[in-house]
Design a protein that fits this description.
By secondary structure, this protein is an all-alpha fold. The chain is built from 7 helices and no strands.
Length: 165
């Protein structure tokens, strides 16, 4: 749930909601149908987008699988999970949610696996660009801050002592 709405509900115990609180809740709930449509649009194009990211990354990193057994399959899974958390955070209108639930953990896994910040930036930039090319401008605008969060967090992991990409 949206953290601000959750806080309003929690803080309003034993009292009536103030007008400003009511307006915030109504604005959030009024935007849910558009958020659900955006989620459905991404779901419908998810496989095409992720496959496209994988194909482009394979061309950029032809030796990747030499370092990682089933590396491309795992990358596909990670991108898919990231995209789904991105969409979920957009639906709940909660930018912190994706960092708290996935990105901090995933960044540590990728860093410990020898992934470079450049590899991650390229991967999640391609994901962002793939979504932009496959959904309407309105839907992309709703998703863009969340897609940018992936690039920011995963693209700023420490450089590994030995790159394995």
């Amino acid at each position: 749930m949206n953290t601000e709405i959750e806080n309003i509900i929690r803080d309003s115990e034993c009292r009536y909601l103030e007008e400003g609180e009511q307006k915030k809740i109504l604005a959030y709930t009024a935007s849910l149908p558009a958020r659900f449509r955006a989620a459905a649009a991404v779901e419908a194009r998810e496989e095409v987008v992720i496959r496209g990211v994988g194909e482009q990354m394979r061309r950029l990193y032809p030796n990747f699988e030499r370092y990682h057994a089933k590396g491309w399959e795992k990358c596909h899974r990670d991108i898919q999970i990231s995209l789904r958390f991105t969409v979920q955070a957009m639906v709940w209108n909660n930018l912190e949610m994706q960092e708290d639930k996935l990105l901090t953990w995933l960044a540590s896994i990728l860093a410990s696996s020898g992934f470079t910040p450049k590899f991650n930036r390229e991967t999640y930039t391609l994901l962002r660009d793939g979504i932009k090319a496959n959904v309407s401008q309105e839907i992309y605008a709703m998703l863009e801050p969340y897609l940018a969060k992936n690039i920011d967090i995963l693209g700023n992991i420490p450089e590994p002592a030995m790159a394995l990409v």
